[in-house]
């Protein structure tokens, strides 16, 4: 039975029918025609209620009590990592001025958020070695997709080359972004011993129609791409753009992508002061060199700094707005707007607190603790950690010879530990392998507890 809601004008049947007529559909179900029929629920949802606020609160509290707690921080990464967030970050981003601010179309009343985002962009540029950064995208995955589209618009080419060991989720989103635009995505093989991108295979696959060559450094498997300079040279020799995806916490100890030839840099800003929160919200980093062709094709907000004419006071404003959807609508480079501004502010506060010295100490701490975990796990019989003979940062693969990944994970969870992302489905050639993660929040005691539980799981 159709209901009319007094606060929802579109719930009126006549209005619904008029809207459907204008867009050319006969029913609401037609809007979901691209969803496979077997996935569509045919029954009637049995939603209880209405209930009082007290009843709902009691019900939800009961559900929450069923949650299990972990003995220590999760040893899982793969795109969202456990990192320490200084208290001052939360204190700043929860101020009403930031928490409630929206699109700063009127710069004269939005100087606070504009300055904050400008500072974030400046810090990202310094971190990744680029000249221009936008004020964030949704996450690393969408940043890769946007970088590919951006590369195609700049070069007018349609092929993108990526490593075969790249993040499966990022690869999936990349395909979603590029297929409607007529771009093809092709994987480049890796060296079986080191995991590094196979330079000979790259040379065979790169050609005159290649818009971009993309690498992840560190890779999804955690190893550092030591061929990064060579990959960039091969891309540039074929007049393709060189796109590098990064985990920003590595850049206190690893060379910035701008230092080895990257044209576009993307990455995930969640580790920079943003909590793990059930998969989001995340923070997509996107930066490029100071070339007008690149900047004009970059999606997302860019904040500029200038001076007032009257008394030369510092002023901030959104710049190059002709790239954006509020002016050009469907002709804009993207529809990204202010959705991630609060996450960008958090990252800006975090980077301001850390500074170059703090980022270096963070990177060194992560390397030290991850290497300790690698060594302790790798010493166990029937275990290989890592499986690739390369330098790793934060994440590393663990291969089990006599137990399945599922068996090991069940034992870990039974002991209050969440460790490793199973790779058996996405990368079956790697065998019974998981991707483990160690950061600065994992103490030696935490790592020793993990090793102890792993031993029990393997011996059981």
Protein described:
The protein has 460 residues and is an alpha/beta fold. The protein folds into two domains: 87-350, Aspartate Aminotransferase, domain 2 (3-Layer(aba) Sandwich); 356-459, Aspartate Aminotransferase, domain 1. Helices cover 37% and strands 13% of the residues. It contains 14 helices and 13 strands. It has helices spanning 13-23, 53-64, 87-93, 96-99, 111-128, 140-155, 168-178, 199-205, 228-237, 292-297, 325-328, 341-378, 405-414, 444-459; strands at residues 132-133, 159-163, 184-188, 210-216, 241-246, 264-268, 284-288, 303-307, 314-318, 383-384, 395-400, 421-422, 433-437. The strands form three sheets. The chain has a seven-stranded mixed beta sheet with strand order 1-7-6-5-4-2-3, with helices on both faces. The chain is globular, with a radius of gyration of 24 Å. The model has no long low-confidence stretch (mean pLDDT 92).
Give the tags:
13 strands, alpha/beta, 460 residues, seven-stranded mixed β-sheet, single chain, 13% strand, globular, Aspartate Aminotransferase, domain 1, 2 domains, Aspartate Aminotransferase, domain 2
Average of per-residue pLDDT values: 92
Q: Characterize the biggest β-sheet.
A: 7 strands, mixed
CATH C-level class of the largest domain is Alpha Beta
Specify Rg, calculated over alpha carbons: 24 Å
Please state how the strands of the largest beta sheet are arranged side by side.
1-7-6-5-4-2-3
Instruction: Quickly give the CATH architecture of the largest domain.
Output: 3-Layer(aba) Sandwich
Number-wise, the strands total 13
Tell me roughly what share of residues is in helical segments. Answer: 25-40%
Shape label? globular
End-to-end span in angstroms? 57 Å
Helix-and-strand structural type: alpha/beta
Poorly predicted runs: none
Q: The CATH topology of the largest domain, please? A: Aspartate Aminotransferase, domain 2
CATH homologous superfamily (4th level) name of the largest domain: Type I PLP-dependent aspartate aminotransferase-like (Major domain)
Q: Could you state the order of secondary-structure elements as H and E?
A: HHHHHEHEHEHEHEEEHEEHHEEHEEH
The portion of residues forming beta strands comes to 5-15%
> Tally the helices: what do you get?
14
Counted up, domains total: 2
